[in-house]
Automatic annotation (TrEMBL):
Annotated protein name in UniProt: Probable two-component response regulator
SUPFAM superfamilies documented for this protein: C-terminal effector domain of the bipartite response regulators, CheY-like
Alphabetized Gene3D superfamilies for the sequence: 3.40.50.2300, Winged helix-like DNA-binding domain superfamily/Winged helix DNA-binding domain
Keywords: DNA-binding, Phosphoprotein
GO MF term (any one): DNA binding
Modification 4-aspartylphosphate, positions: 113
PROSITE patterns: HTH_LUXR_1, HTH_LUXR_2, RESPONSE_REGULATORY
Keyword Chloroplast: no
Organism: Bordetella parapertussis (strain 12822 / ATCC BAA-587 / NCTC 13253)
Domain annotation Response regulatory: ranges: 62-180
């Protein structure tokens, strides 16, 4: 698979690496020649470009990292720590612990693993809980799951950016810098290049509530567990599930399971 030159569409990269960029999945990516960019750019990207060209942060950006795999969390921390404009202030493997830490040690950006099946909060829950105490912090989600579904769920939850775990780490560095500058936009590197975008829903037939219930079911949670996680009654959860199945033409739970395996991130992903 060929990788597009890392960078924001329409924005020169101020921190280009001269060596091959490591990737989140532990692969290696060959260095790329200078990229060419379209003359037109979206407003959010243009704003980021002006900032990057005309000014530099007066201090290092404080970054928090959350991943339930310690090796990934430590690896991300080590990589970002090599950059002079980042200070990795917090590195956690537990969402609740990071939420408490952020109250005492605010950060400019948080890089969080979107799917953490063994924890009480998943990516959507964590992002929503962060928004009240940390409204100005840029939130970037990373995931090894189905990119389209995860990207849209992160966007709906209030994240500022999305990066697949197979992407070059140089894209993560650029994504942090960009989202800190342009927090009103959502940036994605799902295509191999950073772009300001509004993700399309995976299935427009479903309401957001129905899609959220199916996402929880795909992760292995029962109706009772979903009720507790989302603070909704079991009757409401069951109603959303039933309506979603009717819209999708799914006759039983087996058909639902097959649909979820093809369209939603499953609990086998890290």
């Amino acid at each position: 698979m060929s990788l597009v030159t890392p960078g924001i569409e329409g924005v020169p990269m101020p921190h280009r690496l001269s060596h091959a960029a490591p990737v989140l999945a532990g692969q290696a990516c060959a260095a790329h020649p200078p990229a060419t960019y379209p003359s037109s750019a979206q407003p959010a990207v243009a704003s980021a470009r002006r900032y990057m060209l005309l000014s530099r942060p007066s201090r290092r950006l404080r970054v928090a990292i959350l991943d339930d795999h310690p090796a990934v969390a430590v690896g991300l921390s080590a990589y970002l720590g090599e950059h002079g404009d980042f200070e990795v202030a917090l590195t956690e493997t537990n969402a609740v612990a990071l939420a408490h830490q952020l109250k005492r040690h605010p950060c400019d950006a948080a890089v969080i693993d979107f799917f953490m099946p063994a924890q009480s909060w998943d990516g959507v829950d964590f992002i929503r809980r962060l928004r009240r105490p940390c409204p100005d912090m840029a939130v970037i989600t990373i995931s090894a799951g189905k990119a389209h579904e995860t990207e849209y769920a992160a966007f709906r939850a209030g994240a500022n950016g999305f990066l697949p775990k197979g992407a070059p780490l140089s894209l993560l560095a650029e994504l942090i810098r960009t989202t800190v500058v342009s927090r009103r936009a959502f940036f994605s590197a799902r295509t191999g290049q950073l772009r300001a975008t509004i993700p399309d829903p995976p299935d427009s037939r479903l309401t957001n509530a129905e899609r959220e219930i199916l996402r929880q079911i795909a992760q292995g949670f029962s109706v009772t567990q979903i009720s507790g996680r989302l603070l909704r009654s079991k009757k409401t959860v069951s109603t959303h599930k039933r309506r979603a199945m009717k819209k999708l033409g799914l006759a039983d739970d087996l058909a639902l399971a097959l649909y979820l395996s093809e369209n939603f991130e499953q609990n086998v992903y890290g």
